[in-house]
Amino acid sequence: MKRGGLKIAIAVILILLAAVLSIKPLQSQLNLGLDLRGGAEVVLQAIPEDGTTVTTEDMEQLKEIMRKRVDAIGVSEPVIQLEGNDRIIIELAGVEDPDQAIEALGQTAKLEFRDSAGTLLLSGSDLKNAQGVSDNKGGGLISLEFTSEGAKKFGDATLRLVGQPIIIYLDGEVLINANVKEPILDGKAQIEGTYTLEEAILQAAILRGGALPIDVEVMAKRTVGPSLGSDSLQKSLYAGIIGMILLLIFIIAYYRLPGVIAAFSLIAYTVALFWIIAAVGVVLTLPGIAGFVLSIGMAVDANIIIYERVREELNNGKSLRAAISAGFKRATWTIVDSNVTTLLAAAVLFKFGTGSIQGFAVTLSIGIVLSMLTALVLTRYLLFWSADVSAFKKHIGLYVTGGAKNA
Question: Does domain 111-211 have CATH number 3.40.605.10?
Fold first, then answer.
């Protein structure tokens, strides 16, 4: 192997060494899910009001509200599931203190509308929606919409309390204190004040999140350990490294010197994907790891498609540079088509899935986009660069049947 080819081989070895050495420090930066690092579990019991029963609709609404609360505080991929007819289980990854988990969930009391004497006028279940909107004066206001029953209650209250305040409480603390200017009978109201638009949007989000359909109380809280554990994660990482090395050996053995370029691209892709996942803060669960591994397999497929197309062009007698150009042109749409199809499937999983299913979709999507970039940009650049390397030209005959013309 001449000087140019030797440089490529040395570069691949250095990248491989850097990838192995980066695994340990990178592991501490990964945001692991509940199955890999444990967390906290909270069980909430629904408490029906006098003379009422807890309905399936109430529990589904409660589940959705809790999911929004968890998403709002930045706890990714929570496990939120119903148990029986009146309980809900919430598992939060990385939250070691169950009391901290309860606090992170937001307050579990219902939203309350009261008058100045403390009389309850409406509860959170009477609020249908709340939005922060612009007041066209550079500020913001909060737009409220009540349910049909809530609209009647609110209309009766505003008829009686013109010129007096209606105070909105969340967990016994005053959230908003607003004076009634005139009776509001259509179930829609606006709260004006000295809000900026951002403050109005935030307050509206709190109102929506606080609108629990039923009362709940904490029945149980505990710390849960990881179902896989750090030891299993480390073994999985080492298994992945071994699998990658075997894959690179196969590519290099089958494609010879061009395989070295493919190996370079794949290693660069794998390291970049790990760092992107760590930098973005994606919660890595076992399904997420599966998405990561699947995206690596698709990156390998992209390189194989490219090389087979280039091989066909070389066998047709084209020069090396012409074969590379034509091969990439033929391979590009095949790679893009297959990857876009997979991206659409990942989008569907993210839209309709929950928790770890969304994590799988996210890691798969990131990996697919990155694999297309490395295959169609990095590999293309390296192949054209290597076309001027004498060692590449010398060994290209081992890669094709019938040889090739000079570049």
Answer: no
